[in-house]
TrEMBL record:
Protein name per the record: Phage related protein
Pfam family, one: DUF3693
Organism: Photobacterium indicum
Source taxon at top rank: Bacteria
């Protein structure tokens, strides 16, 4: 899961030893980090962007990663992965930010929008 990698990167970047230090920075209960790590809960977009900024990780990559984590549908997860690969291969910055903004608010139409975005990026 991408959010676990993001948490580990933040922990390393800050030289933290315990997850409760991450929780303090995010302003959440320490058990929430355990829930993120186990997949019981998923971090918000705001939390993912905050962690990415602090780790010097591309914010767009972080958003795509946590959205892929959140979906339970394997086909939708595959679409998110394809979008991430296309964006990384093209270095497309403006389109990717817009794409993430569009896809972030949709749940039932994600498949159609993702397919359209993939066609546009090709």
């Amino acid at each position: 899961m991408y959010q676990v990698q993001l948490l580990d990167a933040f922990k390393t970047a800050k030289n933290y030893i315990q997850d409760k230090q991450i929780a303090a920075d995010l302003g959440i209960p320490k058990q929430r980090i355990s829930e993120y790590r186990s997949g019981k809960r998923y971090m918000s977009d705001i939390q993912a962007v905050f962690l990415a900024q602090e780790c010097k990780i591309d914010e767009k990559e972080a958003l795509i990663g946590v959205h892929a984590d959140r979906t339970q549908n394997s086909h939708i997860k595959q679409l998110w992965d394809e979008i991430a690969k296309k964006l990384n291969s093209q270095g497309n910055q403006l389109h990717s930010l817009g794409l993430v903004a569009i896809l972030g608010g949709l749940s039932t139409e994600v498949k159609a929008v993702a397919q359209c975005a993939l066609c546009t990026l090709c």
